[in-house]
Design goal:
Elements: E1 17-19, E2 24-27, E3 75-85, E4 88-98, E5 101-109, E6 116-122, E7 129-135, E8 140-149, E9 154-156, E10 160-163, E11 173-174, E12 181-186, E13 190-196, E14 201-207, E15 210-215, E16 222-228, E17 231-237
């Protein structure tokens, strides 16, 4: 057996799990695994949440392991929701407590992985109500709040997904089953995602209005789902 060579993002120290003896592998505040991974989930096919359903990434980079460590911030978010209409995404959120809290960043992503800040809202104090709106020309987008306290610590809210739904007959897919190519017809530029039967995202692409030809020769045989504009269609790769 050849030698094992350590590369980036590998650790050889105590990971400081909460209670490894009893099977609790969540990270403690002293864990060297915190923010020790890659900056985002791009290309990793691990989804946007950890094993407990918490958002990846909670800090400046992915935490190594099955769980993200989330520091407790002095802000309690009660609700965060959004609605899309006339190419504008509107949001509202409410807080219960905001001790030593500084501001919110409304962040947006077109792939659910890489986010950028589109609005900043200053804290108002306990039991506050907030609203914000941004232009959304994309057919679908993901949003979250980055909540930052006065010490620079932060955490993220749940992700809100906003989409402009299409009628089912606006998203035909053919041939089906298919071996080499599928054709997808859409009425406007749309972010299209393909998932395998296990729910793992295998491809993301931006399609233009009209008929788009997609090369599927590299996909293994099996069932897949195309998700675009709120619609989900199944196809079989022969």
């Amino acid at each position: 057996m050849g030698a094992i060579t350590a590369t980036d993002n590998n650790l050889t120290v105590d990971p400081a799990f909460a209670d490894a003896t009893n099977g609790n592998y969540q990270l403690t505040a002293a864990s060297p695994c915190i923010d020790a991974g890659t900056p985002d989930t791009t290309g990793l096919n691990i989804g946007t949440t950890d094993l407990a359903g918490s958002t990846r990434v909670a800090g400046s980079a992915i935490d190594i392991g099955a769980y993200e460590f989330e520091a407790t911030l002095p802000v309690k978010l009660l609700v965060f929701k959004g609605v899309l209409g006339n190419n504008r995404a509107g949001f509202e959120w409410r807080t219960a407590t905001e001790d030593n809290f500084n501001y919110f960043e409304l962040q947006k992503s077109t792939d659910g992985k890489t986010f950028s800040t589109v609005a900043t809202v200053n804290a108002k104090g306990n039991n506050s109500h907030y609203v914000a709106s941004v232009i959304q020309v994309e057919s679908a987008a993901y949003y979250r709040l980055k909540m930052v306290d006065r010490d620079g610590r932060y955490k993220f809210s749940k992700i809100v997904y906003l989409t402009q739904a299409f009628a089912a007959d606006k998203l035909p897919l053919y041939p089906n089953p298919a071996k080499d190519y599928i054709n997808i017809s859409i009425s406007q530029p749309t972010l299209v995602q393909i998932y395998n039967a296990l729910g793992i995202l295998v491809r993301t692409l931006q399609m233009q209005a009209g008929v788009n030809r997609l090369d599927i020769r590299s996909l293994p045989m099996g069932s897949y789902f195309v998700v675009a504009g709120g619609e989900k269609l199944k196809f079989i790769k022969k």
